[in-house]
Amino acid sequence: MKTPLIFFLAILTIHITNAQKWDSVGNGITGGSSSPSVLALATYNGELYAGGRFDSAGGKPASNIARWDGTKWLNVGTGANSWVYALTVYNGKLYAAGVFDSTGGVLTCGIACWDGAKWDSAATRNTLIAYPSALMVYNGSLYVGGNTNVAVLNGTNWNVLGNGFNDFVNSLGGYNSTVFAGGIFDETSVSSIVVNYISQWNGSNWTQVGSGMNEPDGYVYSFLTWNGKLYVGGEFTTAGGINSYGIASWDGSNWDSVGTSIYPYVYAMTTFKGNLIAAGAGGFNQIEQWDGTKWDSLGAGITSGFDVNALAVYNGEVYAGGTFTGAGNIAVNNIARWCDTCAIVNSTAYINENTNYFSFYPNPASTEINIVLHRSMDGTVTLTNVLGQDVFSTTITGNSGEVKKLDISGLPQGVYMLKIESNGQVVTKKVLKI
Q: I need a labelling partner for 10 at 20 to 30 A (CA). Which of 146, 167, 220, 281 fits?
């Protein structure tokens, strides 16, 4: 039995007013061998750049990266030959990190830079950062994080910080002149210090940040320094032993909750008009704002889809990118903008669905993945490797509460995207095979 859809009819208007609302970004981001998604956003040279997994932006060819000039989508040279996970600006150039090995026809080995006209390499095969997925500029230096390590750019060379961790680094942050790393690791690599998914660099070694996040699976995906504290987002339920669902703050000595946390998962944060904006999956409309005292909504938020992976502020508006098809009461394609004074001409009907269809464990996984169904499901599950190739596919059917096991023992170690298509929806998550 398929999960029924719940429809909400929006009243159509024909007059023009100005109000806070969600709006589309042209025709959005579409296409690709896997389900299209925006994974990173950054502003550069007066334009908004979007990276991820897609082959079209605004209906025009765009290979995993595109730029929005405020009115239309444009390509970024010939783009990247595989997924782009992170974007940042450093020394007058836009840097991109991901699982690509070529951008604009130039061999780039997962880290590339764009000067507004052409692509250039920012890494070699000796960079020692496999699968780079996080970038950060802090105190005048550029940092990259990836498979177990963090490195800093020194001239034209990358210097690895210490011996790294026992698993993947997903995110980087800076606070009180200290570099922080977050991810799905729970120990340092050599001395096996238990850090529980977050660690700080003391100039010589990676050390604990209090007692870190909850075991197991308290993964960290985002950082933001705001109002004198370091805010941390992820898939945890406690920080330093304090209940903090998806988001917590660190003041240099202690962990604290952020109000009555409303998110199971926080994947991205930014600031807008003095407030902290947090977004992710499974929470109230998947995007909210925190004024230091209470949480408040951004309109109806993301109304049809699965997750928000990236946030940015461009031309005085909040842009959200991810895997979704509805924002407010309009249809969008994986990217939307929240504006204070948008002209409202009309509205359309939209679908609001409960998207909490399943959860899965463990991650990382070595022999099997267990998928826990939270709704009746009738669909397919696919694993895609970093080259965009489908390496595993099967049907998945069952009722709420059932656990489905996927045998992955025959797959090589590496990063995969788990995609489940069911009930007219698509959701993808990153999985590490060890």
A: 281
What DSSP designation does 5 have?
Answer: P
| H or E element, residue 391 | strand 390-398
Half-sphere exposure of 122 (CA within 13 A, CB side): 31
Q: How far is CA 223 from the centre of its chain?
A: 12
Per-residue pLDDT of 270-283, as tens digits, reads 999 999 999 998 76
139: region left, alpha or beta (phi > 0 left; psi from -120 to 50 alpha): left
More confident: 228 or 17? 228
Q: In whole angstroms, what is the distance from residue 374 CA to residue 359 CA?
A: 8
pLDDT value at residue 224: 98
Whether pLDDT at 33 is above 70: no
CATH 2.60.40.3080 domain span(s) along the chain: 358-433
Residue with tokens 């590496």: 414
Pick left, alpha or beta for residue 208 (phi over 0 → left; psi -120 to 50 → alpha; otherwise beta). beta
* CATH number among 2.60.40.3080, 3.40.190.290, 2.60.40.10, 3.40.50.10260, domain 358-433: 2.60.40.3080
Strand partners, 51: 40, 65
CB neighbours of 309 closer than 8 A, spacing ≥ 6?
37, 38, 39, 40, 52, 267, 268, 321, 322, 323
Query: Residue ranges of the alpha helices (H) in 159-259?
Result: none
Question: How many whole angstroms separate alpha carbon 250 and alpha carbon 255?
Answer: 5
Q: How far apart are the C-alpha atoms of 189 and 315, rounded to whole Å?
A: 43
Contact (CB, 8 A) for 329 and 347? yes
Q: Phi/psi zone of residue 118: left (φ > 0), alpha (ψ -120 to 50 degrees), beta?
A: beta
